[in-house]
Every structure is written in C-alpha cells, then in structure tokens.
Automatic annotation (TrEMBL):
InterPro entries: PduO/GlcC-like, PduO/GlcC-like_sf, YBR137W-like. Pfam families: HbpS-like (PF03928). NCBIfam families: PRK02487.1-5. This is UPF0303 protein SSQG_02903. Belongs to the UPF0303 family.
Amino acid sequence: MEELEREERRLVFRRFTYDDAWALGSLLVETARQRQAPVAIDIHRAGQQLFHAALPGSTPDNDAWIARKRRVVERYGSASYLVGARFRAKGTTFEESSRLDPDTFAAHGGSFPITVEGAGVIGTVTVSGLPQLQDHRLVVQALEEFLSKQAE
C-alpha cells in the first residue's frame, strides 16, 4: 500500500489541459497497441470526457468497468486499486464494507486520479480490459512517461 500511496504523491501535474488529455490518451493507446492489450481508455476532467478509445478486443463491458472505477476515484480521491487495497488491509473487501452499490462503484485497479499542484484531484485516467493490477500498472507507466516529458 505504501508504494501505491507514493505513486499518487509523485504523479502530480503542474497543469492539465485538453491537449494534455489528448497526448496522455494517445500515449496510452500507443502503449496498449504495442502490447496488443484489448483495453478501453478514458480520461475525464470535471465531469467531462476529454478522451476515449476502444482498442480491438475491448467490449462495451469495459466502458461499464471504466465508469464504475472512475466513480471510486471521484468519491475517494485515490486510485481505484489503492482504495480496494485499503479495504483488503482491514480484512474486508470494498464490496462488503463500502456500503456502495457494486453496480455503480468498483474498487478494482485501472483508474487513477489526475492531480494538479495547488488544485487537487481534478479528473481521472482509466483503463479497463486487463487484470486489475495490469490495468493499474499500464496507467501508472503512462503517467510516469508523460510527466517526465512534461518536466523537460
């Protein structure tokens, strides 16, 4: 859990524009295509979808998972995988103890907060189609690469 919390502290944007959403989403698409990953990708900011892509092998079900994972990030302000891990660390599950509808919320890996310095969490970037840890790692890898380029 400590590593997941460090990721959130480290992966912070100075700004996040429409162009940034397009560039980050495009980077995720390129990375997923290289891996032949059957994923759907979504970026939201302040309730508006700024980017969406569905790659070969993804299904409408992936869009439903994206919405459920995104809602967890919007509600808790933390990565969906981290939220699920926090419940597991308490000896329970998100589904058992959150008191939230599992048809609306899913604390499974793949959705990460878009945090901007001085503003906090302003959006989400979400991937669905792989096992939850792989979804999470795909998003984290793309954020690391994008932010390192943005810092140059």
